[in-house]
Write a structure and sequence with these properties.
Length: 284
């Protein structure tokens, strides 16, 4: 066989493979009529899940399946809608990938699980639960409700989250928060850093804890809080002017802990790490 014939044969094979890949990727859309507060659950083996608030009392599901090795099952019972990816035969991550995008009523409650794909939600006010192994999680413009987040090594990013009960945990990832407030904000990372940029508002209880990661809070001069910070083996830095507390549960150790109040002490703030560094900064 000549070089020209071999080249032609290779080009033909490449074209067939490309055509097969494109044909294996299928895009589907389904619409579910529902009430203003449906419960929507998605379980995805691999791939992203994106949720937005839509118009009207309906859930619009759009998904892309990347191979014939995986299928999507959907079911509706009243206002409860379930979606699940099923891997038909053992295969690699790319072949079992499904990309999901959801439009839901703003008051919907969502349960989202993706082992390794990113998960995001915005403009919602219902209950939100996210779980994954390496999945990064991103929530923006969330109001009211309850947020529960769990990931092993993914980063958790919360922005413009107000009047929300927040519980977030990651083993190795970072937790980044900007303008997050609520009656209870409880976040922890075993090894990652925790960064908070906000005013600790809402007369809430804020608990930021890490084992070996650093904790940094960037707050305005108008903050109103009762704060306690402690690093068992690491260093603490207080760049914020605090008033001393009349009563304390322990005696602060210089360089390792501090406590004090600012403003009317409306919110309770607890910052704790075993070996990481804690820094409380006044926003410029």
């Amino acid at each position: 066989m000549s070089c020209t014939q071999r080249a032609a044969q290779c080009m033909a094979l490449t074209a067939v493979m490309a055509t097969t890949l494109v044909s294996a990727q299928t895009r589907q859309q389904k619409t579910f009529a529902c009430g203003p507060k449906p419960m929507v659950s998605i379980i995805n083996e691999y791939g992203p899940i994106v949720v937005h608030a839509g118009a009207g009392n309906q859930v619009v599901l759009t998904y892309v399946v990347h191979s014939d090795k995986v299928e999507v099952d959907t079911d509706q019972n009243g206002d409860r809608i379930t979606v699940e990816s099923h891997v038909l035969t053992p295969t690699g991550e790319d072949a079992k990938r499904v990309d999901y995008e959801l439009l839901v009523p703003a008051g919907a409650s969502v349960i989202l699980h993706s082992n390794s794909g990113p998960i995001s939600a915005e403009n919602l006010r219902g209950e939100i639960s996210m779980r994954g192994d390496t999945a990064n999680m991103d929530l923006r413009n969330i109001n009211d409700g309850h947020i529960h987040l769990e990931t092993l090594s993914g980063t958790i990013n919360l922005q413009e989250v107000h009047d929300v009960h927040v519980e977030a945990n990651t083993v190795g990832g970072d937790i980044l928060m900007k303008n997050v407030s609520g009656p209870l904000v409880n976040v922890s990372s075993n090894q990652g850093k925790i960064y908070y940029d906000g005013d600790f508002g809402g007369s809430g209880s804020y608990k930021l804890t890490s084992h070996s990661g650093d904790i940094e809070a960037n707050i305005p001069a108008t903050v109103s809080m009762d704060v306690t910070a402690k690093s068992d083996k690491g260093q603490v830095d207080d760049d914020f002017p605090l008033q001393p507390k009349t009563h304390s549960t322990f005696t602060p150790e210089k360089g390792h802990s501090f406590m004090g109040i600012a403003g009317r002490a409306a919110s309770s703030v607890w910052l704790h790490t075993f070996s990481g560094r804690i820094r409380l900064k006044q926003r410029k």
